[in-house]
Amino acid sequence: MPVAEGKIFSFEDEKSIHSEFLESIDYTGNPQKIKYETDEFSAVCPFSGLPDIAKIEIDYIPDKKIVELKSLKYYFMSYRNVGIYQEAVTDRIYKDLHRILSPKYLSVKTVYNVRGGILATCVMDSDTVK
């Protein structure tokens, strides 16, 4: 793992992400598209040691499970002191949600605050992940 340059703040590795916080609820309703959004996500850039702040958008069509929202918030909070690259965050959230929900469709989009004049947006969805 790269080492942050300049002033060093300690941060944790990916083992500190608590995917076990995610809980699902049985769903028996009609097909629908569900969207969750938050702009309160943060993790730590493992290269610079600085915080990465992002808006996260989750779109999915449930099969038999939906995510319990308080558990999703706790799961997101577990990233707060974790050193993880932006692209890896998107991948991890997608995999963790797909594992507990097995949805008909899932999309995870992360849009990070501009850093160094660059806006980073990462997207994973059921159409591109096989």
Report on the structure:
It is a single chain. The chain is α+β, with helices and mostly antiparallel strands and 130 residues long. The protein has helices spanning 69-77, 86-101; strands at residues 24-26, 34-44, 51-61, 65-67, 105-112, 121-125. The longest helix is centred in the C-terminal third of the chain and has 16 residues, at 86-101. The model has no long low-confidence stretch (mean pLDDT 93).
Quote the distance from N terminus to C terminus.
Answer: 27 Å
- State the strand order across the main sheet: 2-3-5-6
Number of helices, counting only DSSP H or I runs of 4 residues or more: 2
Shape: elongated
Measured by DSSP, the beta-strand proportion falls in 25-35%
> What percent of residues adopt helix (DSSP H or I)?
10-25%
Radius of gyration, taken over Cα atoms and rounded to an integer in Å: 15 Å
Secondary-structure content class = alpha+beta
Report the biggest beta sheet as strand number plus sense, adding barrel if it closes. 4 strands, antiparallel
Query: Element order, helices and strands?
Result: EEEEHHEE
Q: Count all strands and give the number.
A: 6
Average pLDDT for all residues = 93
- Low-confidence spans: none
List the helices and strands and how they pair.
Blueprint: E1 24-26, E2 34-44, E3 51-61, E4 65-67, H1 69-77, H2 86-101, E5 105-112, E6 121-125
Antiparallel strand pairs: 1-4, 2-3, 3-5, 5-6
